[in-house]
Design a protein that fits this description.
With 452 residues, the chain is of the alpha+beta class. The protein has 13 helices and 21 strands. It has helices at residues 15-26, 53-58, 62-67, 124-138, 188-192, 259-265, 269-278, 281-288, 331-352, 361-383, 385-393, 398-405, 416-430; strands at residues 6-11, 31-34, 72-73, 75-79, 96-99, 101-105, 119-120, 141-143, 146-152, 159-164, 171-181, 196-198, 204-212, 229-233, 240-245, 250-258, 291-292, 297-300, 304-306, 310-311, 314-316. Strands 1, 2, 8, 9, 10, 11, 20 and 21 form an 8-stranded mixed β-sheet that branches. Strands 4, 6, 13, 14, 15, 16, 17 and 18 form an 8-stranded mixed β-sheet that branches. β10 (159-164) and β11 (171-181) form a beta hairpin. α9 (331-352) packs antiparallel against α10 (361-383), α10 crosses α13 and α11 (385-393) crosses α12. The longest helix has 23 residues, at 361-383. It is globular. The structure holds flavin-adenine dinucleotide. Flavin-adenine dinucleotide is lined by residues 11-17, 34-37, 43-48, 147-148, 182-186, 188, 206, 254, 299, 302, 318-320, 323, 326, 329-333, 335. Flavin-adenine dinucleotide binds at residues 11-17, 34-37, 43-48, 147-148, 182-186, 188, 206, 254, 299, 302, 318-320, 323, 326, 329-333, 335.
Length: 452
């Protein structure tokens, strides 16, 4: 009889992989996690949304995360370069401070399964290690410095070829009943099975680093919000800056733009960073008053989808399935919730002794719905970001926008604010005389694109 080494082989030990491993081992399945790096390792993606909390709680990791002392994130704020003199017309409600700043607090809206009014900003080196160690405590066998190099689905069970990077670079074969690809932007199976499709609209690029001693309140209207994530709009098309607390004194700062804009600038990435932040002189001044404590890192080619996210004996989760743009800090939440939804199907498949593709239809349907909503929310933001800011400030839509910002995208219903934003965007696009028409951005997503 053919045998296997583990029920589930998980490729990648980031948040998606370790969360899936925790769920699956807690349900009694044997799991191996193959991680190519040795943790802790740095990683981009430091600001969480509250939809991560119920998942962390369910796998028993919330107390561990809380005990780690990551800065608490109580909300989000957006600042604009637009002065109150150049006030942009609103949806009919006067805004207290023009468009200089909009903000939300998570405490404004109760969220199912979330019993705290904050989430976290995390140093991903520590956070990812902590989740991987948690998976191990739950019973997963974790192999670090172990890269999945190949997979063979031709036999009765999938066989993974795993290479050790260090030492004598040995390769070995591991047989599993099912492969979960959580390899992030490494997109292990997406590449092997030729599933990956570049996003038709977004081709984003980011440059980021950490500063010590940044005055986080320099651009804040409300000085009691300095522990929020700040998104600073720049007076440059499709370009913005994140400001994320990492410790009491350390702050992560990144510029996000379109890759073509960086290429067209013909400058080094460091000069590009300073040129961009220089478009908000008060931001540049604040950054120059702080000390940069990490080299600049850049991230590119991260906007893509997959033709399929599951098949016979395999499934993609987290960034291995899809990523578009970090504007709403959705990545870790999608990774954790994807792992939650996928694990429910995998556990049922294991009980039925059938890992065929139809077993993962519920996961596929939920992710299709959630990712389509995220995609549209991101697209509308880039198409007309003043619309987003206006909705945040408008009492008629504020809580519904907050629902999305909390990451609650997994229900059956399409968020009402999204429906309204879509209709209004189309109306403004079709009416050149509309006061907001001149504020339309250059990125325009095809209405039905992409499925994943
Ligand atoms: C510029 C930028 C800013 C972002 N900001 C945010 C943010 O503020 N908040 C947020 O929530 N998200 C953010 N994200 C997204 C976030 O980084 C990801 O969505 C998140 O890390 C996904 O988790 P994951 O587990 O799917 O993948 P990862 O965290 O990338 O983990 C994948 C793991 O797989 C390993 N691996 C890869 N290939 C192999 C292989 N062949 N074999 C074995 N192991 C392998 C890698 O070493 C890695 O450890 C941002 C992304 C970008 C690009």
């Amino acid at each position: 009889m053919t045998s296997y080494d583990f029920d589930i082989g998980i490729v990648g030990g980031g948040p998606a992989g370790s969360t899936a491993a925790s769920y699956l081992t807690r349900a009694g399945l044997s799991c191996a996690v193959f991680e190519s790096e040795t943790f802790p390792r740095p990683h981009v993606g430091e600001s969480l949304v509250p939809a991560t909390t119920p998942v962390l709680e369910e796998i028993g990791a919330l107390a561990v995360v809380e005990a780690a002392g990551f800065p608490r994130k109580y909300g989000a704020a957006w600042t604009s370069a637009v002065s109150s003199a150049d006030r942009i017309p609103t949806l009919g409600h006067q805004m207290p401070s023009g468009f200089r700043e909009a903000s939300i607090r998570f405490s404004e809206r109760d969220q199912d399964g979330v019993h705290q009014d904050y989430t976290y900003h995390v140093d991903r080196a520590k956070f990812d290690l902590l989740l991987l160690e948690h998976a191990k405590r739950c019973g997963a066998v974790v192999y670090q410095d172990s890269r999945a190099r190949a997979v063979d689905f031709s036999g009765p069970y999938p066989r993974l070829r795993i290479a050790t990077n260090g030492g004598d670079a040995r390769e070995r074969e591991v047989t599993v009943r099912m492969v979960v690809d959580a390899s992030g932007r490494g997109t292990f199976l997406g590449n092997k099975l030729r599933l990956k499709v570049a996003d038709p609209v977004f081709n984003q690029y980011a440059i980021h680093t950490w500063f010590d001693g940044l005055d986080r309140g320099a651009l804040a209207v409300n000085k009691d919000q300095t522990d929020f994530i700040f998104i600073h709009f720049l007076p440059l098309i499709d370009t913005w800056v994140w400001q994320i607390p990492i410790t009491d004194t350390i702050t992560s700062v990144g510029v996000v733009t379109q890759k073509q804009r960086f290429a067209a600038s013909k400058t080094e990435r460091e000069s590009f960073f300073w040129d961009c932040v220089g478009s908000r002189p008060e931001l540049r001044k604040a950054l120059e008053g702080a000390q940069r404590i990490r080299p600049f890192r850049s991230e590119g080619d991260y906007s893509y989808g997959m033709r399929q996210i599951c098949g016979d004996g395999w499934l993609l989760v987290g960034d291995a399935a899809r990523f578009v743009d970090p504007i709403f800090s959705s990545g870790v939440s999608v990774a954790l919730n994807g792992a939650r939804l996928a694990s429910a199907d995998i556990i049922a498949a294991a009980q039925a002794g059938d890992f065929g593709k139809p077993r993962f239809a519920p996961y596929e349907a939920s992710m299709r719905r959630a990712l389509r909503n995220w995609y549209e929310f991101i697209s509308i933001y880039y198409r007309l970001n003043i619309l987003f800011t206006a909705f945040v400030q408008d009492p008629r839509y504020r809580l519904d926008v907050l629902t999305m910002l909390q990451g609650s995208f997994y229900g059956e219903d399409e968020p009402a604010a999204l429906i309204k934003m879509r209709a209004l965007t189309r109306h403004i696009e079709d009416n050149p005389g509309h006061l907001w028409h001149r504020h339309l951005g250059s990125l325009r997503a095809p209405a039905l694109q992409p499925l994943f």
